[in-house]
From TrEMBL:
It is found in: Endomembrane system. The gene is CSLE6_6. InterPro entries: Cellulose_synth (IPR005150), Nucleotide-diphossugar_trans (IPR029044). The chain crosses the membrane at residues 22-43, 55-73, 468-492, 512-530, 605-626, 646-668. The lineage of its organism: Eukaryota, Viridiplantae, Streptophyta, Embryophyta, Tracheophyta. It comes from the Eukaryota. The keyword Signal does not apply. This is Cellulose synthase-like protein E6. Its main location: membrane. It comes from Vitis vinifera (Grape). Signal peptide: none annotated. One of its GO terms (cellular component) is endomembrane system. GO terms for biological process: cell wall organization; cellulose biosynthetic process.
Length: 698
């Protein structure tokens, strides 16, 4: 134990509150008052049935009511941001080398879109690991991913290190070439099949979507000969292919393991101490037995400072998720997560659950050993999707974390200074939108019994309920966003004002919106300006640049019109029994042209897709409306409601046009392969032109 009785009872982690919460709440309260004034004024001045734009006005009121509700729940998680601090030194002093077993589960689905060499850098291959592990220990290598390490480090002036560096680099390149050759020819070499009989089951008679379960123990940790080049035991490494049949879902069995981290195949460990950090939460004597899982934030090694696709949202990682943790909740992100077996498999927490982990670990190891010898095919497969599929949605859904917490467990969100896991972010807009769409499967559960407000009632805190709702409502949020993107521009062309007047002297005969003065208009604009400024401050505080914040605003607009909308449709059709949930895999590698443009921070459109067509059509619609509206204002054409009432329309269209500048550039200026295809451009021009004619036909 070491250190005496007092040290033995010291906590293994601490929880710290973020400073400045009072000032933040005062700032947010001011914005809330402004939002209420806007809603009251719009409700009070709904046009009569004889006036133009009555239903459009009501529609804007409903959209603003939704935005107000969504703003409230997003702000709720920001009011209780906390930060976790694990104490690894205390963990080692208390337990030494007698730590529980940790099984690492890495899933992959497609050898083309998810190349095996990518998986190797997540979980080392058997032969190479015998040399790589001693090299890492000797020279304290970080990161432990070979590819990540060799990209960052070159051989140094140290002769010994340089010699071993070159030798291990050569072994890695040889292994990489063998793997890529096997993928290219579509078969495993005969010597490998002879050595590992399980691989021989992959023959011409089976496909990746129709095959029996295939299991091959590559490294058997029980074998005394399974040692590295320094004579130390190697961990067990197992290859598993789940049974898949066209008519049936693949089944994953629940077996005995203690703690299990689940990284995606394209994510590698950037911090070798991440496991130790997670164990600090699980093994804390006072609170550890309640911890269900420890979730790390998602980070990527190829995201540049401007973050053009907003793949890594620093505000979400550092504020929103940490705020949800302050209410006892933690969003399960589907990767970079350490699970306790009992919670993931659906067991309800009990105060009696304080099992002796050391005894259970060794007992389970003995049981597994006997099971492997008797039934190799029954090798346990971690139940990573059982919890999610139990409720008819992906395990990466918000519902999984909600259900686990409502069973009495307490998840933990931990965001260390050093990033624990690094993955590969999308390098094209299409892939980024597909990933977002896939991540929202199951979001419509908000309108079911799993709505956090109902399912979590009296089980979890109200702040946690609101925090889970933030992410469940991403997809429905597309409808009011689309309304705001389409309706005001069309009514600008028609000359019907749907917003308050900004300059009262332009038309003194018009009934004013609420206050009837320029000062009143300023008060109405005040909450919007404050909110924008608050978002900028949050982004800068979290480490983002102003350009990254601006790109996030564009990404939010694009996602609302595409991936969020499509995810909403997917969920609706699934609820109605018209479709089944599908899992779409995006490419984890890019060709040289795409990669070059990505490094130059140029958005990759490229594909002829419905999403790109929607993006370009909405961009052109706002551009045409802005030009038409400005022309009318300049030439003082007659407007219903006064010229001043159209200024907010012009400002809104102008901001939308500014956000879509890269779209116009891809439509009319760029000539590279990443531009918007000509066929999409012509369709978008036709569709947006037809939309602009609607105000004159109504």
């Amino acid at each position: 134990m070491g250190g005496g009785e007092d040290e033995a009872v010291q906590p293994l982690f601490a929880t710290k509150q973020l400073k400045g919460r009072v000032a933040y709440r005062c700032f947010a309260s001011t914005i809330f008052v402004g939002i209420c004034l806007i809603l009251v004024s719009r409700l009070k001045h709904i046009p009569s049935a004889e006036e133009h734009g009555r239903w459009a006005w009501i529609g804007l009121f409903m959209a603003e009511l939704w935005f107000g509700f969504y703003w409230i729940i997003t702000q709720s998680v920001r009011w209780n941001v906390i930060h976790r601090v694990p104490f690894k030194d205390r963990l080692l002093q208390r337990y030494g080398e007698k730590l529980p077993g940790v099984d690492i589960f890495v899933c992959t689905a497609d050898p083309t879109l998810e190349p095996p060499t990518l998986v190797v850098n997540t979980r080392l291959a058997s032969r190479f690991s015998k040399h790589w592990i001693p090299f890492c220990k000797k020279f304290k290598v970080e990161p432990r991913s070979p590819q990540g390490y060799f990209v960052q480090h070159n051989d140094s002036q140290d002769i010994t290190y340089a010699h071993e560096w070159l030798a291990i680099k050569k072994l890695y390149e040889e292994m990489k070439n063998r793997i890529e050759s096997a993928v290219e020819v579509g078969s495993i070499p005969k010597e490998v099949r002879d050595q590992h009989k399980g691989f021989s089951e992959w023959d011409s008679k089976i496909t990746k979507k129709d095959h029996q379960s295939i299991v091959q123990i590559l490294i058997d940790g029980r074998d005394t000969n399974a040692i590295d080049s320094d004579g130390n035991r190697l961990p067990t490494l197992v290859y598993i292919a789940r049974e898949k049949r066209p008519a049936n879902k693949s089944v994953i069995r629940d077996e005995q393991w203690t703690y299990n981290p689940k990284p995606d195949c394209d994510m590698y460990s950037n911090d070798p101490d991440a496991i130790m950090d997670a164990l600090c939460f699980f093994l804390d004597e006072e609170k550890g037995h309640r911890v269900s899982y420890v979730q790390y934030p998602q980070h990527y090694n190829n995201v540049h400072k401007s973050n053009i696709y907003s793949c890594s949202n620093m505000v979400v990682n550092k504020i929103e998720l940490a705020g949800l943790d302050g209410y006892g909740g933690a969003l399960y992100c589907g990767t970079g997560c350490f699970h306790r077996r009992e919670s993931l498999c659906g067991r309800r927490y009990s105060e009696d659950f304080k099992a002796e982990w050391s005894t259970r670990t060794w007992k389970n190891a003995e049981e597994l050993s006997r099971s492997w010898k008797k039934h190799p095919k029954s090798l346990p497969i971690v139940a990573m999707r059982r919890m999610g599929l139990m409720y008819g949605c992906s395990v990466e859904d918000v519902i999984t974390g909600l259900v686990i917490q409502c069973k009495g467990w307490e998840p933990v969100y931990y965001s260390p200074c050093k990033r624990a896991f690094l993955g590969v972010a999308a390098t094209t807009l299409d892939d980024a939108l597909i990933n977002t769409r896939g991540g929202l499967k199951g979001c419509f559960r908000y309108f079911s019994k799993y709505c956090p407000f109902f399912y979590g009632h009296r089980k979890i805190k109200l702040g946690a309920q609101m925090g889970y709702c933030v992410y469940l409502l991403w997809a429905p949020n597309s409808l009011p966003m689309l309304y705001y993107t389409i309706v005001p521009p069309l009514f600008l062309l028609r000359g019907v004002a749907l917003f308050p007047e900004i300059i009262s002297t332009l038309n003194p005969n018009v009934n004013f919106y609420l206050f009837g003065t320029t000062r009143g208009a300023y008060l109405l604009a005040f909450p919007t300006i404050l909110q924008v400024r608050l978002q900028q401050l949050e982004a800068v505080w979290c480490g983002d640049s102003f350009k990254a914040w601006w790109n996030l605003e564009r990404t939010w607009l694009i996602r609302s019109a595409t991936s969020y909308l499509f995810a909403l449709i997917d969920n609706l059709t699934k609820q109605l029994g018209l479709s089944e949930t599908t899992f779409v895999i995006t490419a984890k590698v890019a060709d040289e042209g795409v990669l070059k443009r990505y490094q130059q921070e140029i958005i990759e459109f490229g594909n002829v897709s419905l999403m790109v067509t929607i993006i370009s059509t909405l961009a052109l619609l706002n551009l045409f409306s802005l030009v038409g509206g400005m022309t009318r204002v300049i030439f003082s054409m007659e407007f219903r409601g006064g010229v001043a009432g159209l200024i907010p329309h012009i400002i809104l269209c102008g901001l939308t046009v500014m956000l879509n500048l890269p779209v116009y550039h891809a439509l009319f200026i760029r000539s590279d392969k990443g531009r918007i295809p000509s066929s999409v451009m012509f369709k978008s021009i036709v569709l947006s032109s037809l939309a602009c004619l609607l105000p004159y036909l109504l």
